[in-house]
Amino acid sequence: MSLRVMLASLRRHSLMPALVLLQVAFACAILCNVFFLAWQRLEPMLAPSGLDADNLIVVDNLAAMGRSFTVAETEAGERALRAVPGVRAASAGFALPMVDSASILLNLRGPTQVAVGVSAFFGKGLVQSLGLKMLGGRDFVASEYRPWGIGASNGDDAWNTGAAQPIIITQALADKLFGRANPLGQMLIDPEDKDGHGYQVIGVVKHMLRNQLGLAIDGRADYTVLLARSIGNTAMLNYAVRVDPSMREAAMQGVKKAIERQFAPLMSGGVQPRVEFYADKRDEALKSSRATLWLLLGLVLTIAIVTLVGIMGLTGFWVQRRTRQIGIRRALGARRADILRYFLLENVLIVGAGIALGMLLAYVGNLMLMHYYELSHLPLAYLPMGAAVMLAMGQLGVWGPARRAAAVPPVVATRSV
Asked: How far apart are alpha carbons 394 and 369 in whole angstroms?
């Protein structure tokens, strides 16, 4: 049967095809946006941290009592932690991984003039303490660190001499800012800092997950840098401590005791330091994302089941209404395969029209969500993804009714009314 005859038949009996079309359209629109939301929750879970996550202890929530921690107290804390059996490296830092109490955001621009928002960590010896893997270049040397904290120049003295500050970036950030060019020795500037002399890339690490997990989406999970800053006078203090894998638990107990011994007299009343493995902190930080992901997956499953049952029911009724037509075609020599192919092709036309309408609704719906809920823009790649799922469900839904129609003997079909 020609396509023209098939379309004419659908126009004469338009109610059932229209119901299937509308059901597919709304389901496709919802699925496209749900897939997008689910991926945004899943992306930070799948992103590699780049750290020695299982053996990294993060100490945060160290708050001074009515004053600031001095440089001497900060360095004494480092020495106390390094003296703990099983500790391989320890560094005082600021805005460390999975520390949500502090964060540093920079806008950096490279030769391509692309400005990228990045997260920054700093502290002496963080490459070793975090267990980062260097892909090229080198770590900071002692003379490159500038003090950071209350009353410090925060590195501005380096700029006043006309020298660019050294910076270590991730491979993903290097690809974004420099493309295929070698990033080592390249210059970066902060467009918002008019008096700065910029940064010079001296090293590249494989991965370094940013601590703002809400920004770790759309391929931006590794948009992170290390700055050459040493911790000076500060009211808040964090430490990164990497331990021997064979002494994890013993080292954890030792770190807790060292922190208690070193900082208990200096801490603000009622504030307790948090001493946790990085892996546990990340797991806790992603708890709400996992719950949301399960909710979205349940929504996808519900939509799939309802859509599949709906297509099967409507198509089954539609096929039953045309039993006499099927019998006539069988009597005229149509094979079972011809009947099956007819209904599958007809379903492709109906579902295809529903998918086209659904993709339009998905895009419009995303614009509304962006307006009212500040949702990210729906990438166009999710539209064919939702379309493919709906097309597969449409064919699966029509398969059973189409086989039953093809199996009807001609003599029975021609007697049906």
From this structure: 27
